[in-house]
Amino acid sequence: MSIENLDSAILATDYQWSVGLRIDIEVNGEEKEYFLKIIKQSKWSGMAEGEFESQKALAAIIPDNVVIPMAWGMLEEDKSKAFFITRFRDLRDRPPPTVQFLAILKKLHQTSVSPTGKFGFQVTTYNGPPKMVNDWTDSWEEYFARQFRSDISFLQNVYGEDAELADLSEAFIQKVVARLLRPLQTGGRDIKPTLCHGDLWDGNVQIDVNTKQPIVFDSCAFYGHNEMDLQNMGDPRCVFGMNFIDMYKNEIGASEPQQDFYDRHDIYAMSKENMRKFLARFPNGFGDFKDDATL
User: Fold this and answer.
1) Beta partners for 30?
2) Distance CA 172, CA 176 (A)
3) Cis peptide before 97 (omega within 30 of 0)
4) What pLDDT, in 10s, does the model give residues 20-65?
5) Strand order of the sheet with strand 78-87?
6) What's the maximum distance between 2 C-alpha atoms anywhere in the chain?
7) Where does residue 117 fall: left (phi above 0), alpha (psi -120 to 50 degrees), or beta otherwise?
8) Do 123 and 132 contact (CB within 8 A), yes or no?
9) Residues β-bridged to residue 207
10) How many angstroms separate the CA atoms of 144 and 198, rounded?
11) Which residues neighbour 13 within 8 Å (Cβ) at sequence distance 6 or greater?
12) Alpha-carbon distance 4 to 208, whole Å?
């Protein structure tokens, strides 16, 4: 048996939560290759189950384009460490052809169905160390708002208390989130809870050398608003960029009210500066919404 250290997941400079290993082993005279991820700290051991269930859900919809999970569990000799294992794939760090990847995302978003008809997921998943608050709910506004609060709380714990950020984020939830997400499920409108990868960017999409297919991995899945899955992809640092967002809107369509599409995209990938800008635009929250259908 041979073991090769592949990579690790790192947050800033102080957090290292996993290590990835390639394992080559002979079974009944046949060489097998596996990828093993070890979660190194007990407080994040749930990541293994979260990734397993996330990849399992994705594999049910787009089996040719995901890392297929095999197992997860706790290490026998050290119960403080968890593992996630899958078949090893020879992947290349290259951006997938845009049209090909758009078709994959379209299939995932349009054919997936929430098992409860609600927003959430069956287990806790992790977007890096931060937990996803996946309790089932009928309201997308509620799901997003509680996750936003959870993420802010995590940041405050890691980097220290920021009173301005705390006040700003709560005002943002009460006004901007209400203004841009509540219309999705009021006035006769509704959205379908869609299976989302949760952390889509070019670092989590690579090309399989053998099949030539784009392969997605490192998911933190949830059933949510499909547009949320684009949250990282419009970032200038991402190879997809806003051109891909435009293509998605044209091919798959924007949720109603369509005029809010790009604003929703912005709040799904929110910064402190943009929170201030949106609060200045929508000082009255949901009261600032003007329904085109009633004009």
Assistant:
1) 27
2) 5
3) no
4) 899 998 888 889 999 999 998 888 899 999 999 999 999 999 999 9
5) 2-11, 15-27, 30-39, 78-87, 69-75
6) 73
7) left
8) no
9) 92, 214
10) 12
11) none
12) 19
Angle, vertex CA 233, rays to CA 232 and CA 236, nearest 5:
95
Helix (H, G, I), strand (E, B) or coil at 126: strand
* Residue pointed to by tokens 């949760």: 198
Asked whether the beta carbons of 210 and 232 are under 8 A apart, the reply is: no
**Amino acid at position 71, single letter:** A
Q: How far is CA 262 from its chain centroid? A: 18
> Tokens for 61?
């919809």
* Nearest one of 88, 79, 78, 77 to 37, comparing CA atoms: 88
Which string of b and e fits 258-277 if b means at least 16 CB within 10 Å?
eebbebbbbbbebeeeebee
pTM: predicted TM-score of the whole model, two decimal places? 0.91
Name which of 96, 115, 116 is nearest 200 in CA terms.
96
Q: How far is CA 278 from the centre of its chain?
A: 23
Distance separating alpha carbons of residues 204 and 219, to the nearest angstrom: 8
Cα–Cα nearest to 41, from 76, 78, 68: 78
Q: Which residues lie closer than 8 Å to 213 by C-beta, 6 or more apart?
A: 64, 65, 207
Of 255, 256, 250, 264, which Cα lies nearest the Cα of 291?
256
Q: Express each pLDDT in 100-149 by its tens digit.
A: 999 999 999 999 999 999 999 999 999 988 999 999 999 999 999 999 99
DSSP character string of 175-197: IIIHHHHGGGGSTT-----EEE-
